[in-house]
Amino acid sequence: MEIYDVKINGLTNPVGHVFDTVTLSWKVRGTKGIRQKNAKIEIAEDPAFITVIAVREGSSLNSLAETFEFEQKPCTRYYCRITVEAEFDETAEEAAKSDIAVSEVCYFETAKLDQSWKEQWITTQEGDHFHPVFKKEFTTSGKVRSARLYVSGLGLFEALINGEKAGMDVLAPFISDYAEYVQYCTYDVKSLLQEENRIQIYLGNGWYKGRFGFGKPDPDKKFLCIAELRIEYEDGTTEVLGTDDSWMYQGSEFELTDIYDGEIQNYLLWEEKENPWKKAVTSEAKIPLSARYSPPLHEMEALPVKELIHTPAGETVLDFGQNFAGMIECCQKLPKGTHMKLEFGEILQDGNFYHDNYRTARSVFEYISDGLDRVIKPHFTFYGFRYVKVSGLTEVLPECFIGRAVYSEMEQTGEMTTGNEKINQLFQNTMWGLKSNFLDMPTDCPQRDERLGWTGDAQVFCRTAGYHMDTRAFYHKFQHDLRLDQIKNDGKVAVYLPNNLPGMTSSVWSDIATFMPYMLYEYYGDQSALKANYPMMKDWVDSIIREDEKRGAQYLWNFGFHFGDWLALDGATEQSNYGRTDSHYVASVYYYASALYVAEASKILGLEEEEKYRALAGRIYQAILDEFFSPNGRLTVDTQTGYILALRFGIYRDKERMVKDLRNRIKKDCYRIKGGFVGATMMSTVLAENGMADLAYDFLFFEKFPGWLYEINLGATTIWERWNSVLPDGKISGTGMNSLNHYSYGSVAEFLYRHAAGIIPVEPGFKKVRFEPKPDIRLGFMKCSYESASGRYVSEWKINEDGSLTFRFEVPFGASAVIVLPDSGREPEEVTAGQYEYTYMPDRDYRTPFGGGTRLELLAENQEARKVLETYVPQAVAAIATENIEKMSESLYEMQAQVSMLGGPVDHYKEAIRKIEEIRWQNR
Fold it and tell me: Is 401 helix (H, G, I), strand (E, B) or coil?
């Protein structure tokens, strides 16, 4: 029996974070016990647990979240230990057993808290506009017991002690609204100290000083840094060294540092110029310092060069085989005077390097060598790329280059493999879309002159992200930033962060204020987090109420700006930004959903406001019916997204009609995706939840434009911003707004987890799930695991050669599940922790996916089906040959009905259908 994955506020052994409350979570594995019989949590000031400051014990302790509040001391490490006793099932043999485990000692360490900074911000002297490096030399006075460096800098900083970097973070102090708070980092630097020491702090422009967002850089902003080195000696004495005017500085080798444009390191910059050490200047800048909210941000994966390409244009290009965000590292020896230039791109055009879709972002890294050997890499920027053009070298040694993927430290929780390699690639693309855009803030893209924290993208993807990764700490920081901005804007929630459009809102985007906190509660079961975010949820809905009341309380959100179904394909053209779905309908539906989420949160938290917001939701619901539905139940917003929203949020007069009308709409659209950021991102899941998994799978496996496999066939390794970001001939469709690394449409992975694998949460934190997989022969097989907040769930299935189905499920300790076996004739089965396997012959043959209702377009892709059509229904072959998608959307049943209506013979149709139904799928 083992206690594992102990987290404190969603982090492993966090140091220097803000701990408004301390919430512990844990999991158990390696026991035949099924649930917790007793648990005990101890928090102490020492690892031997002699000075225990908090103890909690009992059978009801919640492994998802036990929250403690106590007076914390500054600069103090607290130790935690958890003991769990397992309970076995009720059989006489098992009941007598006992299993107890004690966790490894974990810890969290406070930062300075309310301890005043005796240190001062320091900067350069007037007239010095170069990138500085600050230094301080000092001597330790004894044997060091512990040493902590509390440090921050603007725009970005890296701190070194005796030439070694303090901590693993990159791009610190990360991204935030610096007028609200600037984070400082806490690093354990004991191992870096010697008797004689030098501390250095390098500074770069970053988000603070450089080009970023839709504003302009401020060249008058000064480089700034602040640091405190606290050394505790074995003899009990403490020494504190901090930034003041005794520090010195000079120009560094950094000639350019910019988030968009890249970085230039020039080690000959000062060769023929004076660069004396100067006295630092203390600054009176009023900068609100804060302990960190950001999870660690550092290099997470290494990617070797897959291919060295010599292009038709004579360029030398490194192909890393994967689009990602991060930087490149080079260890090739470069003679003095060598000027190496690296340029970054996502795609080749006509075999040549290309990055025009980066718009004004130069996205370069330049290195001018002084001849010394060192690891060459950027320090104050990042890139989104797959390809790197190298110039300035007489020879490029690909083995000397390595890609470093950078994203916030998160545990990957979802794993999936199927029998379809294209779906496996799609799954990985959705994962890399997340990794590439979770650099301290959920961004839209990592490469062009944008990289903003768009709230709409984050909202539509957060449920998928919660399957892929443990996102609670990452989203905690994002929600903190949202809340700070909301308070300044009278309850209104930004459409992106950092927000330089104060007061601007939009449905779907700003509704992240209610959607994300509720999703986090559903996935992680932490009431304390829901309570912390409840004011943001409530204030957002209240802000819409106030605007609506100015017009007499219509209970519709039919005013103001809205992005609507952004980038949908049913707009004026396929390149239009706005779709055809009425944006006021979209907004009103989200107003209803947000009001309902506030009501549900009120109920969970035991607040009296539940009825107020539930009544509000009811009035909005009725107003939507009155405005957008006919008395007979017809939805007047006749688009895919219109119906999908109605079904997703349960707004209709007649559900069966909604399902029927959605099917009809999809048929009228010739089975082509028409939705955008609203409709398409939830389409597959909504279809599966409403008895249309067949259509969800058809869209999933569709290999032409628009579809998820269209981009797979064109070599994509991440998710695109647009369905047609790249045209069939490999040419990029435009440069105005065209990212090849945009995670929103990766939301289809939620369908894979929830419905293809069938892992559906029933209780918060996945304490109970519903296993209800929906096999499809085109997938071949499914192997999925999800390391939920409650433990590891497994769902696997395969379709055997004899037509039987085999399922295997795992339920973690302390959890339970309802198992629903498709086409088995069995009642749902309630199970507790354990492993379960079933093999049976289903009521229908999953090996034969075709029938009379299968549209011609799908039959045309199967050789056996084409032969049947050629033999029995040449009219169908003729329709396919036209490549007219309207004709190819017809089925044999429909063609047979048309012939029958005209009195023609239909026996050959019946025979064709019989033959078609016998065809067994062969996975390629």
Answer: strand
Bridge-based pairing of strands 316-330 and 224-233 is unpaired
Cα–Cα distance measured from residue 387 to residue 309, given in angstroms and rounded to the nearest whole number: 10
CA proximity to 641, closest of 589, 593, 702: 589
Measuring CA to CA, which residue among 72, 12, 16, 45 is closest to residue 230?
16
Q: What is the distance between the alpha carbons of residues 300 and 321, in angstroms, rounded to a whole number?
A: 17
Quick one: CA torsion of 505, 511, 514, 517, rounded to 10 degrees?
Answer: -100
Closest alpha carbon to 289 in 151, 173, 181: 181
Q: Are strands 768-771 and 805-819 parallel, antiparallel or unpaired?
A: parallel
Q: Which residues contact 763 (CB under 8 A, 6 or more apart)?
A: 525
pTM above 0.90, yes or no: yes
Q: Which residues pair with 385 in a beta bridge?
A: 324
Q: Which residues contact 902 (CB under 8 A, 6 or more apart)?
A: none
End-to-end CA distance of the chain: 43
Q: Is the pLDDT of residue 213 over 90?
A: no
pLDDT tens for 683-731 read: 999 999 999 999 999 999 999 999 999 999 999 999 999 999 999 999 9
State the average pLDDT over residues 842-868: 96
Bridge partners of residue 137, in order along the sequence? 198
Distance of CA 150 to the CA centre of its chain: 29
Q: Which residue has the higher pLDDT, 922 or 361?
A: 361
Interior angle at CA 506, CA 501 and CA 509, nearest 5? 95
Cβ contact 749:464 at 8 Å: yes
AA identity, residue 418: T
Number of helices followed by number of strands (H, E) in the chain:
21, 42
Token reading at 456: 């709409």
Which helix (H) or strand (E) element contains residue 688? helix 679-689
Alpha-carbon distance of 183 to 172, in angstroms, equals 8
- What gap in Å lies between CA 417 and CA 784, rounded to an integer? 7
